[in-house]
Amino acid sequence: MSASYTELLKVRNYRLLFSGQVLSQLGDAIYEVGIVWLVYQMTGSAAALSWLVLCQTVPFLVLGVVAGAYVDRWDRKLTMVVTDALRGFTVLYLAVRYGLGDLTLWEVCVVAALLTSARAFFHPSLRSILPQMLPREDLLLANSLSESAKRICKVGGMLLGGVLMAWGQADLMLWLNAGSFFLSLWTVWLILLPKGERGPADRRAGSIFQDIRSAGREIRGEKAVLAAILLSSLGLIASAGMIKIGLPLLAGEGLGGDGDAYGLLMACFSVGMFLSAALMKKLSRLKILTLVALGWLIYGVTFGALALTPPLLLCCLLVGLTGFAHFLTDIPVTTIIQQKMPLSRMSACQSIWATASFGSESLGVAVAGPLLGLLTVTAGFTAAGGILFALGLLPLIKLRSRGQNRLDRRSLAE
Asked: Which of 264-268, 286-290, 384-388 has the highest mean pLDDT?
């Protein structure tokens, strides 16, 4: 039987990892808002902001899958320590240069690229180290708790970052983010793993691309993992654009509101995710693919209802349900990879999922923009809702009679 959230936090290693990531995520959220506004203050240029976003994005697309394969060859705890140190010192460099009054745009962009590159190595290590410290039946709750805390920190950190920039405290924003990385480093350093669980001891003779192909074969060999990744990737293509572009249009055109209406809708989206995390203990009794399919079914229903442009209060409820569904389409995929993939390929498999997720979300936003320029918001939500409903219904019909991937019922081989 899986543990409760309170029981999870009694596990020393997980408590250290969780607390360090809470601090790091808070610092990241402060920095995420602050650095954009800082670049705008420095340049007053939209092109400069585009360069910043480009430097924050491209390194992940280049390194995403490759980074995970390298992490599988390295000590994961040491990888997390080194990448935290790199991120801390690079932001510290920005703080010093800003304090001296010599900071330039190209330095900010180079640091942005370095931070994204380090993150490409850090996150596969983070997701792969969890199975080394917790029983498999506890992984879904552990991932849910971590993701919930991340969302809370993001909201609080962005608010704090905005306040700091409004007060002209860009230097404090940079120092806080640098300090959060060093605090994360310290908590990871204190984690005590058994000697045999620190990471892969072998150094493979083959190329890194052979390792990536091997990870791909592992995923293809586990139909449940492959189905979960494909299901969520396709769902993100259909949903991401409507969340990021369709909802603002709905708030402005359909509801006749301003930024406050959109902000309220997104707040409800976050509340829905928190509620999903709170109920994950009960939801974990379902099969993994059932959770993912249920998420896309709810997405489809709520999008279809939003196409009717209901009153603001009902819109808030529907967007809250969408947030609830969004949590179900993400965390279970990470968990099933942790449960079913061998530890020797874990990081590469997580990177494949992260790259597929990032690429699908980006494609969905890129496609939705032009389509919503041609179609009405109502038509966009109707079409996306129909696709997502079918996407959720198909695996429920196909896998109804199968008894695989139950999180707390079956021991899964490495």
From this structure: 384-388
Q: Both tokens of residue 300?
A: 């489809």
The two tokens of residue 251 are: 């708030």
Contact in structure between 379 and 249 (CB atoms under 8 Å): no
Angle between helices 139-166 and 331-340 (to 10 degrees): 130
Which pair of tokens denotes residue 329?
């389409």
Q: Which residues pair with 406 in a beta bridge?
A: 287
Structural domain total, the chain = 2
Domain membership of residue 19 (yes or no) is: yes
**Are 125 and 254 in a shared domain?**
no
Beta strands in 104-247 (DSSP E): none
Residues near 107 by Cβ (< 8 Å), separated by ≥ 6?
Answer: 93, 94, 97
Q: In this predicted model, what pLDDT tens digit does every residue of 128-186 receive, in sequence order? A: 999 999 998 899 999 999 988 888 888 788 888 888 988 989 999 999 999 999 999 99
Task: Please check whether residues 178 and 231 belong to one and the same domain.
Answer: no
Q: Tell me the per-residue pLDDT of 66-75, one tens digit each, with 9 for 90 and over.
A: 999 999 999 9
pTM for this structure? Answer: 0.88
Q: Look-up: residue for tokens 């052979």?
A: 210
**Pair 287, 379 in one domain:** yes
Kindly state whether residue 9 falls inside one of the protein's structural domains.
yes
176 and 220, same structural domain?
A: no
- DSSP conformation letters of 317-342: HHHHHHHHHHHHTTHHHHHHHHHHS-
Provide the residue range defining the domain that includes 130: 5-191
Count of C-beta atoms within a 10 Å radius of residue 155: 13
Residue 315 burial (CB count, 10 A) = 25
| The dihedral sign for the CA sequence 365, 232, 291, 144 | negative
Q: Is residue 406 part of a domain?
A: no
